[in-house]
Amino acid sequence: MRERVKTLLLYASGPTRWPAITRDTVLHGVLGLRADDSLESSHAGTRLLTQTLRRRAHYGSLSYMRDWHDAFSASPALDVEACNATNLLEFASARRKIKEYPLVVVLHSVAGDSLTLLRRTQDWFSQRRGKLLVFLGNEYDLMPEKIGFLRAVEADYAATQLPLDSAQWLYAECDRTEILPAPHALNPEAYWPDLASLRPIDIGFVGDIYHYFIGDLDRTRTVQFFQAEGTALGLTYDIRTKRMPRSQWAQFLNTCKGTIGAESGTYYLERTDQTKNAVRSYLKAHPQAPFDEVFHRFFRDYPNPVSGKAISSRHFEPIGTQTCQILLEGRYNDILVANEHYLALKKDFSNIQDVVERFKDEQHRTAMVQRTYEYALAEHTYQHRVRSLVDTIFGM
């Protein structure tokens, strides 16, 4: 049996900005608290400090952050040591390991919402002897910084959530880095069907409303359509525009027969962030501007757009709970097939009657979710993703 590869896994419990860095460095670095430690303390000041810091924003509702972490940690091919980069004392102690370990993995949580910490410490990564695999989150935002980091450290591999052809265009300047497909997947340990649930809700949805700089309102309009027309279509619904922690989200899905959605990301990939920044500036000056005005000004005549639309973790989580998905037609990284794995809804909603009829057919719906669940378990779990990446990097 081949010896397991010593691996340093870098993650962050929140965006790598000062709120999360302060919280984790104080709570876990200075005070030495574990993530699950009680807040009890004999000192009122210490108790107030820990309560205040723990209320700061973190990634608890983005379950894929934990799913990737768990899959790497459980890999039989890897001997994983995890390091929280937002605990500066812990991160500093990892400097030698970055230099020496055969594999260093930077997860989305470190390279998604902010690159400040990575850019300030990029010389650490440049001194490595092993392989560097970087997972890039939100591949429509901070792209100059993300591309700049890959180039500066000459990362060996970048793992992308995008379809590979789109990602190869986006990272074309990173000529020393091999782009590896790493779409989201199913974590069956967190998302499974509750066979005892009566599923009283027909359509359930929990999620964010996307910013205008994405360039479309596909998912937003779908959510609004079901809010407006659900009752007339004979459907009960529970639609919330606020995320839930992983365990609550799994429980919610198990109360729903179906959910709705669309591909994540943007139709307008950019290496420069130019359009996104222009939209933000325009909305700052015109906060009441409707989407149609923004679209006509910035996207209608966009030259030769490259789509970054992709499958997301939110498409696999309902698969795990055997909750039927009504999704706008799309590519979904060529993983999900329309009307085989989900009920395909046209973007103008012109086939809504047919979709609802098939959704209400319990035998048809049950066969679809069972088929899709077995398909994901056989080919598309996070363990499958990690195994594929390790095989590519080390030829295992």
Low-confidence stretches: 37-57
Order of helices and strands: EHHHEHHEHHEHEHEEHEHEHHHEEHHH
Rg estimate, integer Å: 22 Å
CATH class of the largest domain: Alpha Beta
Q: Characterize the largest beta sheet: strand count, sense, and whether it forms a barrel.
A: 6 strands, parallel
Q: Return the CATH topology of the largest domain.
A: Rossmann fold
Distance between the termini: 11 Å
Give the helix/strand class.
alpha/beta
- Give the CATH architecture of the largest domain: 3-Layer(aba) Sandwich
Number of discrete domains: 2
Concise structural overview:
By secondary structure, the protein is an alpha/beta fold.
Structural description of this entry:
By secondary structure, the protein is of the alpha/beta class. It has two domains: 5-185 and 381-394, Rossmann fold, CATH 3.40.50; 201-379, Glycogen Phosphorylase B (Rossmann fold, 3-Layer(aba) Sandwich). It has 17 helices and eleven strands. It has helices spanning 18-30, 44-54, 63-74, 88-93, 95-100, 116-120, 122-126, 143-153, 164-170, 218-229, 246-253, 274-285, 291-298, 313-320, 352-360, 362-379, 382-394, and strands at residues 5-11, 78-84, 103-106, 131-135, 157-160, 178-181, 201-206, 237-240, 256-261, 324-328, 343-345. The strands form two sheets. A six-stranded parallel beta sheet has the order 2-1-3-4-5-6, with helices on both faces. It has a five-stranded parallel beta sheet with strand order 8-7-9-10-11, sandwiched between helices. The longest helix has 18 residues, at 362-379. It is globular, with a radius of gyration of 22 Å. The termini are close together.
